[in-house]
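Key result, reporting period 2: structure in, sequence out.
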């Protein structure tokens, strides 16, 4: 039922089929099952249709022994994080991402700040503003937004890693290592972060 739609890359029809044939609870059960392919399909489904209630289960799958399940769970988490705001806030995020793409960092900060005003509990809006500040080399401002992100979304490994980057740039290396290790605790497959921790540990010894 799902395979032909996957092969045809028909996302609209796939979403319709998933909504029609499976409840969220059933998909979450598949995600925790023993069948590798079922877990992959479940992670894909949650990436397309999942909500905040699915975040904990997807976070657990970041340590899945199947690397594809891990990657799909990570992708699903990012997808859900980006749509956790109101419709208006999500629209501001999209405009901010477009500004980032064009390296219009000040404009990006404005859009992400507007998203935060519209949806103060929208963790990804803080995280994206942190990225914009980081690209402007405003590391203290970026760190503050990373801290706001993980306060709202404790499993946000991207923000933990981002906070580590900020502390590294501020030469606060022990704090950077702590943040990187928190990111790895949540998502153990972040090989670049693991390599950075080894480098920083060597530098501080």
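The corresponding designed sequence is given below.
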């Amino acid at each position: 039922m799902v395979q032909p739609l996957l092969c045809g890359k028909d996302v609209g029809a796939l979403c319709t089929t998933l909504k029609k044939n499976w409840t969220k609870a059933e998909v979450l059960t598949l995600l925790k099952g023993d069948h590798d392919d079922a877990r992959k399909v479940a992670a894909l489904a949650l990436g397309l249709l999942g909500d905040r209630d699915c975040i904990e289960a997807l976070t657990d799958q970041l340590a899945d022994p199947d690397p594809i399940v891990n990657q799909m769970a990570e992708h699903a988490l990012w997808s859900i994080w980006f749509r956790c705001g109101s419709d208006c806030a999500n629209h501001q995020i999209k405009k901010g991402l477009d500004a980032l793409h064009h390296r219009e960092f000040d404009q990006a900060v404005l859009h992400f700040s507007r998203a935060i005003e519209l949806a103060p509990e929208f963790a990804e809006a803080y995280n994206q503003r942190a990225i914009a500040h980081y690209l402007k080399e405003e590391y203290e401002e970026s760190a503050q937004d990373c801290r706001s992100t993980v306060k709202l979304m404790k499993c946000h490994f991207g923000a933990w890693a981002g906070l580590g980057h900020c502390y590294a740039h501020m030469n606060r290396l022990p704090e950077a290592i702590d943040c990187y290790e928190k990111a790895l605790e949540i998502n153990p497959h972040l090989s670049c972060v693991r390599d950075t921790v080894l480098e920083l540990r060597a530098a501080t010894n």
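DSSP finds 13 helices and no strands in the chain. Residues 3-82 form a domain with the Leucine-rich Repeat Variant fold (CATH 1.25.10.10). This case is discussed further under Risks and Mitigation.
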